[in-house]
């Protein structure tokens, strides 16, 4: 009886191990797929807004749902193009759509946070595009600084409305203090998040201190 139980448990262990390894492989392949799409985008000769937008939507959909997390190889490639205003705009639009959907799990939130961090705030002085579009005139109007900044702001505002895991909550507070609140079009939208975080006790109150100070000084709270 003991021998048969040991055989069953051993079989279940190997089954679990196989499922775990298989899951890691599948999720690694998903990130590789996203990276492949990103490489294809860079090497393409696309001049059509819809094709560029569709490709980026597919990349974002894959990345935010990858259980293996956002890979360093993906971020390395993305960081070489994230300063282009069209790339920035299309990634922000796709992320906003994903973030504004129903409640998300912890891995989705972490992946979205890592991707959001990699997208720099719109630059009023540099409006360089990665691609040459047939709809150049209308796109320059669509991607004007104020419009892209508003989408950037919406992404972060809607992100912090989620119930964040404690470690991510703390990391987010520290990030928005330095990189988000100084540039968004309406810092007051973050008031509830910052004040409620400050009321949660240590370490969140310590992490929220800088953001709270920023809101007090810049918004006359």
Automatic annotation (TrEMBL):
GO terms for cellular component: Noc4p-Nop14p complex; small-subunit processome. InterPro entries: Noc4. One of its GO terms (biological process) is ribosome biogenesis. PANTHER family: NUCLEOLAR COMPLEX PROTEIN 4, NUCLEOLAR COMPLEX PROTEIN 4 HOMOLOG. This is Nucleolar complex protein 4-like protein. It comes from Trichinella pseudospiralis. The lineage of its organism: Eukaryota, Metazoa, Ecdysozoa, Nematoda, Enoplea.
């Amino acid at each position: 009886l003991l021998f048969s139980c040991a055989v069953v448990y051993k079989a279940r262990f190997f089954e679990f191990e196989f499922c775990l390894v298989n899951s890691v492989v599948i999720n690694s392949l998903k990130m590789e797929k996203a990276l492949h799409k990103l490489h294809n985008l860079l090497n393409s000769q696309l001049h059509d807004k819809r094709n560029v937008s569709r490709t980026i939507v597919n990349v974002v959909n894959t990345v935010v749902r990858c259980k293996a997390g956002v890979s360093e190889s993906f971020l390395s490639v993305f960081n070489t193009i994230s300063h282009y205003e069209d790339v920035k705009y299309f990634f922000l639009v796709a992320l906003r759509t994903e973030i504004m959907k129903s409640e998300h799990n912890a891995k989705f939130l972490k992946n979205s946070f890592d991707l959001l961090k990699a997208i720099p705030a719109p630059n009023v002085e540099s409006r360089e595009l990665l691609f040459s579009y047939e709809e150049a005139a209308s796109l320059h109007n669509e991607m004007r600084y104020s419009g892209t900044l508003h989408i950037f702001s919406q992404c972060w505002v809607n992100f912090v409305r989620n119930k964040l895991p404690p470690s991510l909550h703390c990391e987010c507070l520290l990030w928005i203090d330095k990189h988000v609140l100084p540039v968004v079009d309406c810092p007051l939208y973050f008031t509830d998040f910052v004040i409620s975080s400050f009321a949660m006790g240590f370490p969140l109150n310590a992490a929220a201190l800088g953001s709270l100070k920023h809101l007090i000084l810049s918004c006359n709270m």
